[in-house]
Amino acid sequence: MDKVIKQLHDIGIVPVIAIDDADKAVPLAKALSEGGLPAAEVTFRTAAGEEAIRRIAKEVPEMLVGAGTVLTKEQADRAIDAGSKFIVSPGFNPEVTKYVISKGVPMCPGTATPGEMEQAMSLGLDTVKFFPAEQNGGIGKLKALAGPYKNLNWMPTGGINTQNLAQYASFDQIVAVGGTWMVKKELINEEKWDEITEICKAAVKNLLGFKIIHLGINESDSASAEKTAKLLCDLFGFDYKPGNSSVFAGADFEVMRSKGRGEHGHIAIGTYNVDRAIYHLGRKGVGFDESTRGTDAKGNTQNIYTDLDIAGFALHLKKI
């Protein structure tokens, strides 16, 4: 996966901005970044788009800024010159797509059909935009397409919001979703930067979908672990599930047969995408123990321990 596309994947949501006043671009970018979304697709639908990209690229360097609604080679040149790190188009134009690729800039052309997706793949792309997403069948259509197109990734845009975000976020072949709900024109025009930041924070919360999976309890030996697990099962009617290194009492308690991480045990936190969780928690200063990272065949992280100790419990991330 291209480095820029990987960044977009880890951020997970790309605000799609149509801005009329370039003077508002920098405070808007800062509000998005503060809310956990340091990425933006600034569209060429408005006259201020190009200058907005230029200012964000110069004054908010932590922001991954790209250009959207790029329809021509001339627009692509202007977008790249302004500092765009990626280019997005609403439809699939082979000539414009090939031109942007030749410039060495990640291109995400819009597609809606298998034919368009295959044409994009024939140009060497493994990530395309799916637009308009909800009107074209949404996540259900993408899951159906994932069968024949196992190595294709999508950036769906159109009709995505806080309510349906989790459906997309939990699907592994979604690079990121594009959305406008946190950058509505009235919010920008009225300079409601704090409100935009709060909407972004709520979006990130839904994107990650954190929830407690189980509590790990440290015991000194197998006999003690079995005794503790059986007690929990007897008291609350949980199923007793013995394993090699631990015993589960239902799905909520894992009793370790020997002292594991943490003084008392560990807390397993589930998330839709562990790599995105690593990115967003990393922005908050959380570190991770790379020796504990477990991945699937595609290299996607399935589980990892943080460097945190909370009241004597280690913290473990796990994909749900």
Defining traits:
single chain, 320 residues, alpha/beta, TIM Barrel, 2,3-Dihydroxybiphenyl 1,2-Dioxygenase, domain 1, 2 domains, 8-stranded mixed β-sheet, 4-stranded parallel β-sheet, 12 helices, 17 strands, 36% helix, elongated
Structure summary:
The chain has 320 residues and is an alpha/beta fold. The chain has 12 helices and 17 strands. Helices cover 36% and strands 26% of the residues.
Describe this structure in words.
The chain has 320 residues and is an alpha/beta fold. The protein folds into 2 domains: 3-208, TIM Barrel; 211-319, 2,3-Dihydroxybiphenyl 1,2-Dioxygenase, domain 1, CATH 3.10.180.10. The protein has helices at 3-11, 25-34, 49-59, 73-82, 94-102, 114-122, 138-145, 165-169, 185-189, 193-208, 222-236, 274-282; strands at 13-17, 39-43, 64-68, 87-88, 107-108, 110-111, 127-130, 153-156, 177-179, 211-218, 240-242, 246-249, 253-256, 265-271, 288-295, 301-310, 313-319. The strands form 4 sheets. Strands 11-12-13-10-14-17-16-15 form an 8-stranded mixed sheet. Strands 3-2-1-9 form a 4-stranded parallel sheet, sandwiched between helices. Helix 2 (25-34) links the parallel strand 1 and strand 2. The longest helix is centred in the middle third of the chain and has 16 residues, at 193-208. It is elongated. It starts with a helix and ends with a strand.
